[in-house]
Each structure stands twice: as structure tokens, then as C-alpha cells.
Amino acid sequence: MATEQAAEERDADSLNTDTELLEVRNLDAGYGDLQILTAVDLDVTAGEYVTIVGPNGAGKSTVMKSVFGLTTYMGGSVVFNDEKIHGFKPDEIIHKGIGYVPQNDNVFGTLTVRENLEMGAYILDEVPEDRIELQFDRFPVLRERQNQKAGTMSGGQRQMVAMARALMLDPDLLLLDEPSAGLAPDLVQEMFDRIDRINNDGTAILMVEQNAKEALRRCDRGYVLAQGENRYMDTGRALLDNEDVRQQFLGG
Ligand SMILES: Nc1ncnc2c1ncn2[C@@H]1O[C@H](COP(=O)(O)OP(=O)(O)OP(=O)(O)O)[C@@H](O)[C@H]1O
């Protein structure tokens, strides 16, 4: 028994050796004087796929914006790759290896697809052509339409442009705010498949999704947020199997 127990403890230890990428602790944040998040904790390890779900207005997007330096910091900490980044501006945070795809207004509509991707690499001296090719491999329709103005594309295609642009700097962590919003059902599955592939290529994902059940099915771990506070954290599967979570947050 003792040996079995020791083996189990070793196994448990080995599960905890994942490299911490993002560590949010006790985060208070909001807009101006208005506090939205209270004592939020959140972790993402290298290569992990994490989803945040919760009701409208829960503060999910505010968590993402806070990681990316777009809210008013009020307390706690955001640490990325062992460096405190709370209080940093978005352009500094991009340099650290975080890409962000907001829900709305996420492309330069008057620029072509290719120009949008080039903009994604604006902090580099030269646009790396191989990175553009990599995004075209990931999103073939963007290769076909590379000279089309992004503003004239469909919602799903614009979402691809936005994701491809955010991937141009090969971030360690990609923040995706409702990537399936407004897409037709068949395109939703396609979008989730693409996100799986990006994650399989090694990029950690932190995603907010209204399509909560599908997101929890796909991710490694999930957080349920309500009224700006953590409510539940577990593997996606365990959250889907949790009766309280289902009843309160997943529509039964
Ligand atoms: N720029 C802003 N200024 C002031 N309040 C804001 C701002 N953006 C969001 N809020 C408020 O913060 C709260 C949380 O909004 P947030 O968008 O983070 O929620 P959410 O969980 O992502 O919701 P949804 O699922 O509806 O997108 C809401 O009450 C919202 O009105």
C-alpha cells in the first residue's frame, strides 16, 4: 500500500511539473473607478488550452482585457513567464509573447488581408515571409484572398484574419474573445478545429466562449466566472459533468 501511495504521490507531482505561463492572482480590475473583477485567480501553463465561461456581463472579456493591459488595474498580480506584467501597456505585452483577438473590430477593414498580417508583425524590423506563409497554410482562404480588403470579407473570414494577424509574432499565449460569435453553425465547428490545431502546434490558448459546452469539450481546463468572481475551476470534462455547473451556467 505504502509503495502504491508513494507511486501515486510521484504521479501527482509529475502532473504538477507543467511550466507556468500565465499566473493571475487576486486580481481586481475595472474601467475608470468602476470595479468589475474581484480577486480573480487564473492559470495557464505552457501549451495549455483554457476556457472561461459564464453568464453575460460576468466579466469574462474584462479578464482577457486585463491580461492584455486594457483595463484599470486595481490590485493583485498578473505574471507572465515569471515577469509581472500588470500595469504594462498592450504594445509592451505583445513584446512579451501574448497575442489578443478581441471580439469586435478586430481587423483593419481598409487594408488587404496581407497588409493586415504585415501589421501583425509591425514590431519586427522586417516582415517574416515564412510566418505569412504559415498563416496561409493554417487559413488557406486567406492565401486566395490575400489582396482583398479585410472589411469586405465575411464575419468568419474576418475572424480568421484577426487570428492570423495575432499569430504573426508566434505568441506563447493567444487570447481569443468569443471566436465563434456570429458564425453559422458549420463554421463554428471549423473555427474550433482551427483553434485545436493552433494549440496542437504549441500555442497556449485562453479563450472566452458563449458556446460554453463545445468550448469545455475542447479545452484542457475551464473557469466559470460570475459577477466578476471565480466560481468553479476544473478540467473541461469535470465542469461538463458537474450538475451544479450544468444547471446554473450551461443551461442544464
Ligand atoms: N469599457 C467599459 N466601461 C465600463 N464598463 C464596462 C466596459 N466594458 C465592459 N464593462 C462592464 O463590465 C461588466 C463585465 O463586462 P464583460 O464584457 O467583461 O462581461 P462578459 O462576461 O464578457 O459578458 P458578455 O458575455 O456579455 O460579453 C459589464 O457590466 C459591462 O457593462
Automatic annotation (TrEMBL):
PANTHER family: HIGH-AFFINITY BRANCHED-CHAIN AMINO ACID TRANSPORT ATP-BINDING PROTEIN LIVF. Gene3D superfamilies: P-loop containing nucleotide triphosphate hydrolases. GO terms for molecular function: ATP binding; ATP hydrolysis activity; branched-chain amino acid transmembrane transporter activity. This is ABC transporter ATP-binding protein. Coiled coil: none annotated. It comes from Natronocalculus amylovorans. Residues 22-252 form the ABC transporter domain. One of its GO terms (biological process) is L-amino acid transport. Keywords: Amino-acid transport, ATP-binding, Nucleotide-binding, Transport. The keyword DNA repair does not apply. PROSITE patterns: ABC_TRANSPORTER_1, ABC_TRANSPORTER_2.
